[in-house]
Amino acid sequence: MLKTLLLAATALTLATAVQAADRVTTPLADGWRFVQGDPEGAETTGLDDSKWAAVSVPHDWAIAGPFDVNARAGGAGGFLPTGVAWYRKVLDVKPAPGRRVFVELDQVMERSGVWINGHHLGHRPSGYVGLRYDVTDVLRADGPNVLAVRADTSFAPSSRWYAGSGILGKVRLIETGEAHIEQGGVFVSTPTISTDKAVAKVVVDVTNGGAADAKAGLEIVVTDPDGKVVAKRAVAPVAVGVARTETLAAEIDLPSPRLWDLDSPNLYRATVRVIGADGQVGDSETVPFGVRTAEFKADTGFWLNGRNIKLKGVAVHADGGALGGAVPLAVWRQRFTALKALGVNALRTAHNPPSPQVLDLADQMGLVVMDELFDQWNVAKTPGDYHLFFSDWSKRDARDMLRRDRNHPSVVIWSAGNEIHDTAYPVQAKAALKSLLAVMHDTDPTRPVTMGLFRPNVTGDYQNGLADMLDVVGQNYRENELTAAHEAKPARKIVGTENSHARGSWIAVRDYAPYAGMFLWTGVDYLGESDRSGWPNIDNPAGLIDRTGALKVSGMQRAGWWGETPVIHVVRNAAPAAPPPPNDGAGPAPALPTMIAVATPRPKVDIADDWTPADLSPHPETIEVYSNCPSVEVSLNGKALGAKPLPADGSPRQWAVTFAPGEVTASCGASGPRDVLRTAGPPARIVLTSDDKAVGSTFDDLAIVRAQVVDAKGVIVPSSDAAISFAVGGSGRFVAADNAAPTDHTPFASPTRQAWRGKAAAFVRGSGAGGVVTVQAGAPGLKGAPLTLPVAKP
């Protein structure tokens, strides 16, 4: 039985601590053998895998394609392949007396099985939960020790979007003493915060994996954001029985705390060491954490560190476009930087927890997170999805997911599910939610829980009690329904868990103080869920930025509504005037059955960030400006068209003109920022640019090199579909290319990619310390372009 001990902190003397038996972590990135298929005996030591492919992990084999209209996952999976694959690696490890050895895998997609030397360690249906297996007792002292992993996505479609296939996360070997910290077993919270002092509560689960009873205590060292030690504490040893877990805890004072916030994401670190009765260090773990208050209030929404903040959030899926489901951190860093520049301050993980490294990045960059667990409970959305496993695995998965993520200061709220179809059966839905809430509140009592309610007025969630089981009531779309639910019960805390790009959706949230904020669908274009329009579409283009991380027109408009500094973007709007969409906040939209809504074709969009229409003769055009400036002035070829004030609802400002080739200029007054569109001539050359000043050589390092087809004056030619070939030399290598086109089926690994709207991008990586990466881009009839990036030292 788990025993909780809150022990008084005592003075700590660290000078004599013995470090020889500390935790040893060995990354297992390279040296893997891989095969797509399900060969007999793949888990055994005697199998000859010499003809299997050599790969490194993280690794998504499915992103290599091909795209196929007959793919089993269909449009849900982006028409990419699924199936069974095996990974094998020989481990250079020998068991030592008094030591435990674990294998940890961050994400295996999906229905994973793991073996050592033919011994089955375990299986897990979910591809998002982190895995840890104790391999101590099955390791061979005389070798070889063969780790085998089976990943199975053959039950497709098992997701409504592209989820990847294979070992998508990092893998490591961990060696500890017999008394060790459980996976996710360190929890740091800050229940008391003032200007002069914060109190950090550190709770640690210690397990005895040995053959005899033992004693274990703790040493805790806290460092501030500058790496300076600010607190030390000890917890006296307690008895820990064989195969038992004891929970030890301490409260630690932090003087003059530096708060974690959006613009100052300060991170402390708690290093926890497990100390045996002999004074030896048996295990250790360093956990970053933040000192901050986060609260949802019924009358005023979301508060961070005593400031009322409207959540300007976006939902993000886990894929990295051309990189698939195994996404380097450099890709997320570029995406988060681009989103923050638009005014985004919050992320919703859709519809599953992200990799732990993504939350590390959110911590470091100052983005708050709604961390979501499931897309379905007991009722299916696709035939092979998690509903098959929910009753058996959901409570364990929820516990493990929260234990993994609960130290991240960026995470301010959990979501138990998205558009859960169980709500059509209220008794079943409430029973499932009750069981999840019990696990989630027990695992993390410091954060509230919400979920994205699906058509709550149809299934009666506001009347039957289900909505009020949630700490914060979340609803997808239909903002006025959630407002009405709050007005009916003002004690309800509310947040928009998923919202459209329509202006009315934002106004409904902006102008109602109790609305904590919203999460747009979506922040980044993502692969899959292309059932709406079907083949040849491979992605869902609902993002503010595209698959390569480039800004879209929708992002320009959002920046005009959400930007904290002066924003101005000018575009050409050739679309005819249209009435507001039905769910823009003006009133309830009709409830379409899910499959009808999914099958509805996407509306045609005729807004472009260019002044180069196909027809260059005089004809009606509309100049449209997205800006938060109080007054915007526009001119065409030097002729002033007049200034227009900022509308109360932030709607775009428009000027109807007769098209003439040349230059459109929009400006925020005489001294404010400005934006320019120019008419392009015939394509002449390619230019290469990159926001990256250098590139590293590890998995998480990438540089995004953008190619643009321009005319003789350097204006992008939006009609160009030139076949651009990338060549990477020097101390670098080509990884993938993309153009963000929703119907391009060229393999991402191909170095030749047609321009789409005059643009394409290559992802490159260094291949060693020092030197430079050279990138060349060429296309028939166009002058080529070079770019050089230094390789960063490790």
Task: Give your account of this protein's structure.
With 794 residues, this protein is mainly β. Helices cover 12% and strands 38% of the residues. The radius of gyration is 27 Å and the shape is globular. Residues 1-20 and 577-603 have low confidence and may be disordered.
Distance between the termini: 46 Å
Structural class: mainly beta
The rounded Rg comes to: 27 Å
What is the average of the pLDDT values? 93
| Strand-residue proportion | 35-45%
Q: Please state the overall shape, judged from the principal axes of the Cα atoms.
A: globular
Q: Residue ranges: pLDDT <50 for 5 or more in a row?
A: 1-20, 577-603
Fraction of helical residues: 10-25%
Q: Count the helices. How many?
A: 9
Largest sheet: 8 strands, parallel
- How are strands sequenced across the largest beta sheet? 30-29-28-27-26-25-24-31
| Count of extended strands | 49
What descriptors fit this protein?
794 residues, mainly beta, 8-stranded parallel β-sheet, 6-stranded antiparallel β-sheet, 9 helices, 12% helix, globular, disordered N terminus
